[in-house]
Structure formats: C-alpha cells, structure tokens
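Thread: Newbie trying to understand structure tokens

Hi all, I'm a second-year student working on a class project, and my supervisor (Dr. K.) asked me to get a predicted structure for one chain before our next meeting. I've only ever worked with sequences, so writing a 3D structure as a token string is new to me. If someone could post the tokens and maybe explain what I'm looking at, I'd be very grateful. Here's the chain:
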Amino acid sequence: MPVVLYGCESWSLKQREERRLRVFENMVLSKIYGPKRDEVRGEWRKLQFEELNDLYSSLNIVRAIISRRKSWEGHVARMGERRIYSVLVRTPEGKRSLGIPRRRWENNIKMDLQEVRCGEIDWIDLAQDRDRWLDLVNAVINLLVP
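---
Reply by user tm_fold:
Sure, no problem. This is what the structure looks like when written as tokens:
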C-alpha cells in the first residue's frame, strides 16, 4: 500500500482512475488471500468483492487517498502564503486545451466539501481550526465511496 499511495496527497483523481485503483486493489487482495474451497461443492473458487472486504479490514484504496489528501489540505491551508500553497491553490494562466478540462487539486477539495454539504464554506478558513478540520476529514472519510 505505501508504494502505490506514494505522493497521493497531491493527486486529483477522476472516476475512471478511482475505478482502476479499486480494480488493482481487488486483484492484489485476491492474490494475497487466494481461492477458497466451497464446502458444499468441494470446489475451489475465487473470493467475491464483499468477501475480500470482510477479510481486509483496512480502508479501501480510494478512502485512503481521500483521507491522506484531506490531511494534507489542512497542512497546506495552515502554511500561509508559502511556495507550496501558491502552487497548489493558484489558478494557472493561459488557456486550457479543448475537451474536458483537467481536474485541479482545489477542485477535489471543493467536491469533497460539497459531498458533506459544506460547499459554501471557505476551506482555507475552515482548516485554520484544527478540531473543526479533523471533524470534516472524518466526515468525508466516513462517506460511502462507490
């Protein structure tokens, strides 16, 4: 997990990428836990998605990314006007290419806040209070991720 999630705090994932990560995670878990012998038929079979989740009690990969990203967002917001803050929050100059615009890091923050019905709140001001930010991070993590 640490190798796959290296640097995930700054990722801005699309649904397609999230789905690919979940497929990868299920593939790895099915390799780790291996097949299961069916007691009724006496045959070996692959474990289903729900069975893998029951065996693996940790957060799934998408929730782990979201939790790490939310923690990092709080740190960045409390940094102030330093270089990393300006790189991650500023709006790039120039035109975007045609087609679907790329999702920016700050867009993920706003989407996460909308899921918890806090979309109108300024996330930078909210992150200054560590206790309120931790409550928000826990609320976002506890959401069901499809």
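A couple of things are worth pointing out once you decode it. The chain is about 55% helix and 5% strand. The chain has two domains: 12-55, 61-92+102-141. Feel free to ask follow-ups in this thread.
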